[in-house]
Amino acid sequence: MAAASAAVRMLPDGGADEEERWLAEGIAGVQQNAFYMHRALDSNNLKDGLKYSAQMLSELRTSRLSPHKYYELYMRAFDEMKKLEMFFREETRRGSCSVVDLYELVQHAGNVLPRLYLLCTVGSVYIKSKEAPAKDVLKDLVEMCRGIQHPLRGLFLRSYLSQISRDKLPDIGSEYEGDAESINDAVEFVLQNFIEMNKLWVRMQHQGSVREKEKRGKERNELRDLVGKNLHVLSQIEGIDLDMYKETVLPRILEQVVNCKDDLAQFYLMDCIIQVFPDEYHLQTLETLLSAFPQLQPSVDIKTVLSQLMDRLSNYAASSPEVLPEFLQVEAFAKFSNAIGKVIEAQPDMPVVGTVTLYVSLLTFTLRVHPDRLDYVDQVLGACVKKLSGKAKLEDSRATKQIVALLSAPLEKYSNIVTALELSNYPRVMDYLDNATTKVMAVVIIQSIMKNTTCISTSDKIEALFDLIKGLIKDMDGAQDDELDEEDFKEEQNSVACLIHMLHNDDPEEMLKILCTVQKHILQGGPKRLTFTVPSLVFSALKLVRRLQGQDGDVTGEDVPATPKKIFQILHQTIEALFCVPSPELALRLYLQCAEAANDCDLEPVAYEFFTQAFILYEEEIADSKAQITAIHLIIGTLQRMNIFGVENRDTLTHKTTGYSAKLLKKPDQCRAVYACSHLFWTDDQDGIMDGERVLLCLKRALRIANAAQQMASATRGNSGSVTLFIEILNKYLYFFEKGIPQITNTVIQDLIELIRTEKQSDNSVADPSTEAFFSSTLRYIEFQKQKGGSIGEKYEQIKTSS
Description:
Structural class: mainly alpha
Radius of gyration: 46 Å
Pfam families: Vps35
Organism: Miscanthus lutarioriparius
Membrane topology: Peripheral membrane protein
Helix content: over 70%
Protein name: Vacuolar protein sorting-associated protein 35
Low-confidence stretches: 1-14, 553-558
Function: Plays a role in vesicular protein sorting.
């Protein structure tokens, strides 16, 4: 019969069509014999009814169909057998035939398979009648089913037996409950049926040719639920308490699972055990259950099954805090950790991804069940490091992904990187990541800090943190610059810059240590990173300077305290590092920020030094004309706000500034920079800086440059161009006129207005709507000031705006 089955499996290309034809013939046979069976039953002709039912069931003897098609045929016969069972029940109820006689009668069927189906059907009626103990009938049936050893036919026969008996087991509280031992009989019946079904299921894999092995695997997979239903029935038996499960049920199931030595069966059945039995049973029998895992076949996907067990138990722990003491009592963590170690030892060929996945599941379990036990978490990480020892950086993308999951789990659970920094094995696990993934993990860490607004407040923790994110703050060994995507690099460095602002301590001494630690690391990062990280460090340091404002720092001793002077020294060194980039514009901006902070701290020499460095950068490094324009206006704006300089230092700086302004490449740029310099000589809130003569001098010089720009435009383009510069200067005159500078009189303003009108009306002038609007708006402002009355109105009264 096995040879015939093997021959059928090796069907030619047209085998599928042949199989459909055989299925159709089988269904036709079932329907035809079912018709005659019903006609005989309707006539109360039991003899013919049994004959046709046996002929109908003989269709299930075929070896030609695949499991899927055989199932279709079986379901047609199953539906008819339910009607036959109802007839038998009615016959015995009326007394037309005793159930004992019926039980004997069906055993005369010619073929074994129809005979056993009929026996199971009558057996169901026999148990229902209660004329014999359920345990005796069930034992008889399960033993007789051994007569069918063909895997496919035997599986479906035993599935039928399981189906018709599941509501007739002698369980506690059942109407079929017998003596005290009846529960053992119910369990034994289900276990025996399960064991025999599993043997038949496994035997299917070893029939036929080796070439058909994959196909047989798929067919067996379709039949797995037939076997698994027995475990589901077991889980529904009320009489199985924890003691019986621990002493009888689980050991018997595991014995069959281990001894079958079939990877498909072992994987599926272990999964079934985990899914169908209660969580508290798993917890109390954890050692027994876990002892089976190292004995499974090497090809079994143990990591998935173990992970499901840990997930289920961790969900159980999360569902009710009252059960947590049970986990401690049974030492669940230690048992899982030990089991994983044994599984890895038993499977030396297990890929790295499998090893890491097991530890990810164990870590997830630990974080959910024992979140307060950091030593457990570190122990899991250490065990993973131990198993990975001797291996190079991981190249398997799946294993790398699992390592990232392992490292991310504590961050997600604790929402605090400071907790992760206490795990000594955390950085050791990161060492197994390749350079690209190290960066990804570093970004994950920084994102966790930003999301949870975690403040890292000690230099020691920052040392540990920077060791974790070293992939972002310096070039890794073997990293290639051409592998770096520019946009990704910018995003990474911006995240580091944001991180620096999360480093804070209210104690100035500790904050100074933090700044020194950050400086040490970022200055080792190479020129391309400095433009992103240095500004954050500078502004973080300046925040500390503002807090310490007023301390002069003239303290002697071995430990120099945190003072503005000390911090400005660090800032000077840090900004100097930008020279190697080079990034002179950024360095100049930072020098000016430091100068302003030094001004607020009353440190004139320090502020003067920062301005000096800014001017040196301007002279020697900034050559681009647009950059020069931006720089000179920044210098002017910053210098205007300074109030600490003495006369000599201020004169030196203002002289330099006005000199640079007049040397810009384009005349309009010169003009605007020079009239901006006028603000350096008149400020409202500072005594002594009210030099009207020099304000007027700057404005007159701006007029001369504007006039020169007009003449140059006339010589080169044939027209004098726009008079916008004159209007801008007029607005500056009006500003200082309102400030009350004696040298700026209404006569001077009137003359400038007339000059603008003359220039506009000249033949060489170019009409410009925006310039016209600008001039008209300025004149309207003068009229508006006149209408205010009072001292302002009197000032403007003498200025005529109409031509």
